[in-house]
TrEMBL record:
Protein name: NAD(P)-binding protein
Similarity annotation: Belongs to the short-chain dehydrogenases/reductases (SDR) family.
PANTHER family (alphabetical): (+)-NEOMENTHOL DEHYDROGENASE, SHORT-CHAIN DEHYDROGENASE_REDUCTASE
InterPro entries: NAD(P)-bd_dom_sf, SDR_fam
Length: 255
């Protein structure tokens, strides 16, 4: 998982505290190793740093090789890396003088293809590449089952964004929302594909969380959000039907 801060770091903390072997992925080695040291110094917890940039094919290959060499398998994959580009979008939106939308997204009519490419590169294509690379290791899980958790957003729910009670501002989350909607669609397909192999694949949205990715908007703490992921990360042999689900803030969400 991408986990040197926010929700990811707190999820690593919870899992390590329960005795699980956890690899903390981060693209910045200094920040990643600092997070591992912080967990050890402040909480006495052991986690392993994994140098991983999900947009870098060579680092994905190296990460797979390390996991295979050290364990020969992977039980759970949490795809937590993502980018909303909110700071940049806020600036871009303020630069569009005729835009009257009171939200941090550019109007679709003012959007450029580059916005979509940036969002899709990290939030969609990178997830597919990493997941495809690691599925062979998940198939080798000694548990006899595995789990893939894709961290998504309520902005990826087309039914919520287009419904009668939808927040009209959400309609403007075009590039980010589209990338998360694509991730949700991929999750449905992958869950169907892997169900007979007892690999559970789900989309989980923590709701609004105060983190760097959303410009520290007020919401739940990263620790509160991390706890929402535990039931989907720690699936058991009895959870055959716990797949192809979309949950937001602990409640079922429409696709």
């Amino acid at each position: 998982m991408s986990a040197n801060q926010g929700i990811g770091l707190n999820l690593v903390k919870l899992l390590a505290a329960s005795g699980h072997i956890v690899y903390l992925g981060a693209r910045n080695p200094d920040l990643g190793m600092q997070a591992v040291k912080q967990l050890k110094d402040d909480h006495g917890l052991d986690a392993r740093f994994l140098h991983l940039d999900v947009t870098d094919s060579l680092l994905i290959k190296a990460a797979k090789e390390r996991l295979e060499n050290e364990h020969g398998r992977l039980d759970v994959l949490v795809n937590n890396a993502g980018d909303s580009h909110l700071p940049r979008l806020r600036q871009a939106a303020s630069d569009v003088s005729h835009s009257a939308v009171a939200c941090p997204f550019i109007k679709p009519s003012d959007s450029r293809p580059e916005e979509y490419r940036r969002s899709f590169e990290t939030n969609f294509f990178a997830v597919i590449e990493l997941t495809t690379a690691l599925i062979p290791l998940i198939r080798k899980s000694k548990l006899g089952y595995g789990a893939i958790v894709n961290v998504t957003s309520g902005l990826g729910s087309n039914s919520s964004r287009a419904g009668p009670e939808a927040n009209p501002d959400y309609a403007y989350a075009n590039a980010y929302g589209a990338s998360k909607a694509a991730l949700n669609s991929y999750t449905i397909s992958l869950a169907t594909d892997l169900k007979d192999e007892k690999i559970r694949v789900n989309c989980i949205c923590p709701g609004i969380v105060t983190t760097k990715i959303n410009g520290y908007q007020p919401g739940n703490t990263p620790l509160e959000a991390a706890k929402l992921f535990l039931p989907w990360v720690l699936v058991g042999p009895e959870d055959d039907d716990k797949t192809c689900q979309f949950y937001s803030a602990g409640k079922p969400k429409g696709w």
